[in-house]
Amino acid sequence: MNAAIVVFPGSNREQDARAALLQATGREPVMVWHRDTEIPDVDLILIPGGFSYGDYLRCGAMAAHSPAMREVAERAKKGVAVLGVCNGFQVLAEAGLLPGALLRNASLKFVCRNVTLRVENSQTLFTSGYEKGQTLSVPVAHGEGNYFAEDATLDRLEERGQIAFRYVGNPNGSARDIAGIFNETKNVLGMMPHPENAIDPLQGSTDGFPLFSGLVQALS
Amino acid sequence: MKAKVHITLKPGVLDPQGRAIQHALASLGFSGVDDVRQGKYIELDLGDTDHSQARARVDEMCKKLLANTVIENYLVEIG
């Protein structure tokens, strides 16, 4: 599996993502600067965490319109796997590649700790390494992770199995405890927690690794 | 030509910042503040000379970038 990581000014988890992908694939992912209009032919594009553009205007709002993201949107349409983590999830929502929006945490606190997630749909590229109902310990680090969408949209996400992960012990007020969602065709996943920071026993959890190893299996 | 844009959260969207402001006002002794919602104000200095053209352009700017229409409403004042 070949992967690319899009890097914006202010991204800060791209090296973590790179380490996870290297561990899972044995290959260095390509780092794509946000101003590049060309992305190599890869199986997975990852939009990393951080504070792109300093979270100015709204988190991910300006990153969503960078030249690289236009190409990411084209690839997503063609069925290429796209994973947005934390700020990456915010970018995908702002770009309209995923429905809804990420609001300020209901508590107004920046939450930085491990949370428990439940896998809601294991029948996808991203979650094939898990069992449905499995619980995972994965870190979060965000101030704007409160997922919001209109009731009709939320119902549709539920009906179509587009909810990837739910929080067990909601840390930010997200509607229906949603921690991550797929697009309709399930080739795009956005999630607030950081699976790339739960790949080594030293990090206190390796529960994030099956997401990457599952992807490698599913895409080979 | 100046454009003034007010961006506010749609009703029903949680505004914890507004709530925090409300509590702070209460702590300062201001009673009778039943609700607070915080928004954004953006000023644009435009080279346009035609009002309706300017309005149309700023409207598009709002839809594409300045406001997230999933969660925000916007109001544009020209001139």
Word description of this protein:
The complex is a heterodimer of chains A (220) and B (79). Chain A is α/β, with parallel strands linked by helices. Helix content of chain A is 23%, strand content 25%. Chain A has a 9-stranded mixed beta sheet with strand order 2-1-3-4-11-10-9-6-7, sandwiched between helices. Chain A has a two-stranded antiparallel sheet with strand order 5-8. In chain A, a hairpin with a 5-residue loop joins β10 and β11. In chain A, α1 packs across α5. The longest helix of chain A is centred in the first third of the chain and has 12 residues. Chain B contains 2 helices and 3 strands, in the order βαβαβ. A 3-stranded antiparallel beta sheet of chain B has the order 2-1-3, covered by helices on one side. At the A-B interface, loops of A face α1 and α2 of B.
Shape of chain A: globular
Structural class, judged by helices and strands of chain A?
alpha/beta
| Uncertain stretches of chain A | none
Share of residues in strands of chain B: 25-35%
Instruction: Write down the CATH topology of chain B.
Output: Mth169, Chain: A
Helix content of chain B: 25-40%
**What is the rounded distance between the termini of chain A?**
6 Å
Strand order of the largest sheet of chain A: 2-1-3-4-11-10-9-6-7
Instruction: Please indicate the count of domains of chain A.
Output: 1
**Shape assignment of chain B:** elongated
Order of the strands making up the biggest sheet of chain B: 2-1-3
The beta-strand count of chain A equals 11
Q: Gyration radius of chain B, to the nearest Å? A: 16 Å
> What amount of the residues of chain A lies in strands?
25-35%
The CATH class assignment of chain B is: Alpha Beta
Task: Tell me the CATH superfamily of chain B.
Answer: Phosphoribosylformylglycinamidine synthase subunit PurS
The CATH architecture assignment of chain B turns out to be 2-Layer Sandwich
Average pLDDT, all residues of chain B: 96
How many helical stretches of chain A? 5
Q: Greatest chain-chain interface?
A: A-B, 20 and 11 residues
